[in-house]
Amino acid sequence: MASHFNAISDPRKKGSCYYSQKDVLMSAFSCMYFQEPSLLKFQQQMEDQQGSNNCRSLFGIENIPQSSQLRDVLDNIPSDAIAPIFKDFFSRLRRHKHLEGYAILPNVFNVQY
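-> structure tokens emitted (113 positions)
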């Protein structure tokens, strides 16, 4: 997934950004993954208690942005830049037959997009 995120062009001015676009995108993904609305607070508590956090160890995130900074960066990324990630995930899920239990019509997930 990080390779997909790295392929998205970053319109921000180089050298003036504390958070890399990859860290922002991976942070947004980890918010969905962990179902945690305040990712920064949750991960900072874990860092304080255990000396590490899931964002760093599972997702390779170096700096976790605050929610407002996360939204500011995400708002400037066109949705069509993220679309290949969903296509890739869908293909993987279909290939490994993880979606078959959700099909209402037979062979609906065998359609090529």
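The two ends are 20 Å apart (CA to CA).
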